[in-house]
Design goal:
By secondary structure, the protein is α+β, with helices and mostly antiparallel strands. The chain is built from 11 helices and 5 strands.
Amino acid sequence: MKPITLFWRNMVPNPSKVLVILEELGLPYETSWVEQGDLKREPFTRYNPNGRVPVPLFSQTVQEQQKVDFQLLRSVYNIFTDPGAIIDPNTDMVLFESGAIVAYLIDTYDKENKLNYPSSPEKYQLLQWSFFQASGQGPYFGQAAWFNLFHPEKLPSAQTRYAKEIKRVISVLDASLVGRDWLVGDKCTYADLAFVMWNTQIDFVMAAGTATDEKWDVAEFPNFKRWQEAMLGRESLKRVLSVLQEKEVKSEGK
């Protein structure tokens, strides 16, 4: 089997979400580094037409007023961008958006249903949680990161809103995990693993919310805490977390 190419920036939750699935399924892969300035250019936009420029360009006057190092801000904000796309030479498939990529990898390569349930109702419950992650966790956590870490002025109302949204999303997960180990069925699935990389950012993002009284204490969410720790103990997560600093990552698969 030829290696799947994953377009990659390190320390980024969504591309590393794909990396977790590649590791779980033992697939061969290699990463292709995307420079910040190349996200909106060919050839990357051939594979991801939604190529992102993660930091808007502020006027020179605003830069001077805020005394912000925008080069530093631009590079740090890469933590939260999603330049995710893959090329699979085994099927001639090109895809962008991490949720779609995960669905493709599961449908194409998880023949033993290691991370999946192929029939109803579990099949659709997995989709339910996957959509919740893509529409609820990722966007709200990303907005919290922006207003807590990168916005050139501190806006208490925005920091409070998105801190509360982080806690609301986690409370939904915590309540759903009462008396159960996993979101669906009796095993860890791709739906569980979709959440794990963004979850690792919560401490960092919430601690930066200096303009809000909303604080984060994971002990308030014991079921969530147990679930997250169980996922972090998996070999796939240990591998992914060990390479997050790297520009080039590859595996020959299993």
